Amino acid sequence: MKPSSYSTGLKQARTFSPELFQSWLKGEARPEGTIPILRTQDVHKPPRVIPPILQTTQLNKRNAFVHRKNDNHEYARVSIHQVANYYGAHALFNVWTPRVHDEREFDEREFSLSQVVHLWFQVRHLDHEARLFIYWTRDGYHRTGCYNLECPGFVQTNNRFVIGGPIRPTSVYGGNHKSGNWWLRVQEQDIGYWPGSIFTSLAKKATLINSGGEKQRARIHHTPTQMGSGHFAEEGFGKACFMGQLGYFDNANMFRNPQNLTPTVTNPSCYDLVVGKGGKSFFFGGHGFSQKCS
């Protein structure tokens, strides 16, 4: 099964091979009509709850905002909410394996629609591998939804990709770098889709797009768990974590550039974010615990 149509107006970067980078592909049979599934459940995580944002203040000269919260999540991300409706979203980003200090902590790169459908590249303390995770909910994370393929919802159509499996290789510091269904594409390949019928608010359109980094703390004080590449946004491409070619699809299935991104940074002394020139990309990340981040 394929999407009923593809959008127009999007110029894809051709800086990578269209082959998905998962090592299990080498020499493995992929019978038609089957999909690969992880054997172990050691990557299982509890239901996700997004904490409310309590206070907003402007952040220095970066046109960003600091959101102070009484919880253990730190964010460095941007939001697109300039028009009422979105019918798809797109981003190009590099994948890192930052240091994770505690088994109860994680670092992830997030891409989401209306806080209903999520995609993350996540690194946990367990194996220090970067893995692609997906999640969906239709009632604010209360009773519905799950990660990956752990419950009915997401329909995988590609037999070349293990959802939840490790991604290799990852970035190196200083290196080169209308069906009503919501389709997931990775490296120009259709992986699968969430049927519009399983949603309420996302049944026809999205009203918010979020992308960026998130880190969960296991303690009151900060640890050396890194976000992104473990380096601050000011270091730029090839050193800091990057997301670019941000945009959305309108009701005519045309790709549109965002007019302005709304940054969110919870603790700029630990993890920060800088929007790039033109407002279609950004850098983010940080090293965690230090004299300024405690």
TrEMBL record:
Matching Pfam families: Neprosin
All residue ranges annotated as the Neprosin PEP catalytic domain in the record: 68-294
Protein name, entry field: Neprosin PEP catalytic domain-containing protein
InterPro entries in alphabetical order: Glutamic_endopeptidase, Neprosin
Superkingdom of the organism of origin: Eukaryota
Coiled-coil intervals: none
